[in-house]
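Dear colleague,

Thank you for sharing your sequence with our group. We've completed the structure prediction you requested, and as agreed, I am returning the results in plain text so they can be pasted directly into your records. Please verify that the sequence below matches your submission; if there's any discrepancy, let me know and we will rerun it promptly.
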Amino acid sequence: MNETINGVNLGNWLVLEKWMNPALFDGTTADDEYYLPTQLDPAVYEARIRTHRAEYITERDFATIRSWGLNSVRIPVPYFIFGDRAPFVDCVDELDKAFNWAEKYGLSVLIDLHTVPMSQNGFDNGGLSGVVKWAQTPSEVEFALTVLERLAQRYGSRKGLYGIEIVNEPLLEAGWNAMNPMERYKAVDPAMAEGSAPIAADWLKDYYITAYHRIRRHMGDDKAIVFHDGFDIAVWKDFMQDKNEYRNVVLDTHQYLMMAEINGCPQTVEGYDAFVQGTYAPMIEEMSAYFPVIVGEWCLFNSLGCGVDTHGGQSVLNGEEGAAAETLTVDEKRALYRGLADSQLKAWSKGAGHYYWNYKLLTDTVNTPGWIGWDCWDLGRCIAQDWYPVNHK
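Please find the predicted structure tokens below.
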């Protein structure tokens, strides 16, 4: 990898997250992508999804991203991208278009397999809330591997391809204990959720090795194969270190200030900065001795900017009550976010690059009660308010 990654995620485009576009779920009680089609007429569901995809990201967005000085996009894709898992709607045509746009505007693409059947983490962004049984289901593990192979076959020789990420945020025991997904994301069907469990580190290592070989045979060594740390970065120190067998392997870690808060970080400007410089920066520097390290997801979101303790990023959709009015002035908020941007970008510079989460969201954080502080998930809104430095290196 020659160029440091300075990128942004195109989340909520091909993989839905209700909080980022609540209107898409209108007329249903669904909280995730799995249940949305169960509550809509099939024709209505397909029309709603296809309209969303056509409008949410277009060529102009790639031009905008380039104008900000960014050089890469991470695109979350679902396991049903090829249209072989009814009732879900395929989206490979959209990814084809994304590659054409990216290559026109000089952006690279990291394809991220963001969801798998029966879920790898139980999060709403995993497609099925409160269920973590993918790793226990051999047929679905194999299915995920076939999706990765087909992605590698289709895009492996594309000029714009930076790499393929094997699976997003598989949940190891440390992350399971910290985030408590079964409580945070309630399962609609308790019987389906029964037996959910964190993924074992040894199992995940074996899966990553299998996936590496299945993907690598379809694309050259100039393309990266990216694996996520499962929210336990230290367990990967001696992994895939044989350079004759494993080539261009990149470690992805996701570091959010809301996770720092869960781990006891004080909700103050000084507390955040101390945590970023004292924990994140040395961790990335240490792991960079083993792999190129990218921070595949991060943002400026924090409870101080929201004016309330969000308990690790929980929103009004999770039953949390947001602040009724801003607690910081415009200048105070700019100082907070700009300081956190500078602090985190300094830490990420210890590694091989980063992708902001997210490019945009459609939640109206101005007119909808409870969403104060959530606008900083939207990179465009951050740039417009001078919270994030454009054209930085």
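Summary note from our side: The radius of gyration is 20 Å.

Kind regards,
the structure core
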